[in-house]
Amino acid sequence: MKKSILALLMALVILVSGSFALAEEDWDDDFEFLDDEDFEDFDDLEDFDDVGTEEEFIEAIEDQDKEEYKQKVQQMSDLSGYNNPDLMEDGDYSYFVSEDGTYCITSLYKGTSTDVIVPSTLGGYPVRVIGDHTFENKGFINTIEVPEGVVAIGKQAFFMCINLQTVIVPEGVVYFGDQCFAACYMLDYVQVPDTLESVGEMAFLGCYALKEIEFGQNLKSIGSCAFHTCKELEKVTLPSDEVTVDATAFLQCPENVEIIYSNKS
Q1: What is the count of structural domains for the chain?
Q2: Under a CB-based contact definition with an 8 Å cutoff, are residues 126 and 101 in contact?
Q3: What is the pLDDT of residue 174?
Q4: What whole-number distance in Å separates Cα of residue 252 and Cα of residue 258?
Q5: For the residues of 188-236, what is the DSSP string, one character each?
Q6: Torsions phi, psi of 185, nearest 5?
Q7: Distances (CA, A) of 145 to 111, 199, 205
Q8: Is 185:206 a contact under the CB 8 Å cutoff?
Q9: Which domain holds residue 244?
Q10: What's the CA gap between 68 and 155, in Å, rounded?
Q11: Do 205 and 125 reside in the same domain of the chain?
Q12: What does the pLDDT average to over 231-236?
């Protein structure tokens, strides 16, 4: 009996040893195409033991997210001019002077008026551009009148002015920047100048109250998603069917939006 048990154990040992040998041989076959150079990229990795506990790991990730968010806020602040050393002040406005010293670009509005008439000059310089982010997130504003002499409205200039209802834009303006009126939920009237040539991407995205808008004879292009989710949009007047309108310009708008070409009416 003892001899039988011993023989059985010996057989098991041989079987297991053979299996490991086979596995090792298979392992070698599977990775025989690798050499030392293939592992060089791993040399600089930190010891995984340094990661610490799960709680420490999660805390490190959260700290990284906070730092990235802080950097994004700083970037937005710089873009808006809060920390730009070249920024100048005049009343409720901050502004930049052009390199040639002939005009200025608005940077920040720090006033509290609900009905805003942008001045035609700041610091003695004529205002030529409503700069990027100038009125961004000014939710208390109801109406805005842009002065004569302005030629362009910058990116996100009126972004998230959630109570803005009326915008008067004078002749001479040729460009509406990307997202310039995006998320102006209450906007229902924009006086568009005949001089306007281009409407940027997502310029009127999320203008839920906007029902109709009319463009003048000089319009050449409307960018992607320009009127995305304008839920109440009923009528858009264009000068002709030669205007380049991006295929996504009216995404998520009512299916029955009427496009009128003034040269055919």
Answers
A1: 3
A2: no
A3: 97
A4: 14
A5: -EEE--TT--EE-TTTTTT-TT--EEE--TT--EE-TTTTTT-TT--EE
A6: -60, -30
A7: 15, 19, 21
A8: yes
A9: 88-265
A10: 23
A11: yes
A12: 97
Looking at the fold, whether 3 and 51 belong to one and the same domain comes out as: no
Of 169, 180, 160, nearest in space to 227 by CA:
180
End-to-end C-alpha distance for the chain, whole angstroms = 109
| pLDDT tens per residue across span 128-148 | 999 999 999 999 999 999 999
> What's the full length of the chain, in residues?
265
Residues 51 and 40 reside in one and the same domain:
no
Q: What is the pLDDT of residues 150-169, one digit of tens each?
A: 999 999 999 999 999 999 99
The C-alpha atoms of residue 148 and residue 127 are separated, in whole angstroms, by: 9
Tens digits of residue pLDDT in 7-39: 555 555 454 455 444 444 444 444 444 455 544
Q: Are 170 and 147 in contact (CB under 8 A)?
A: yes
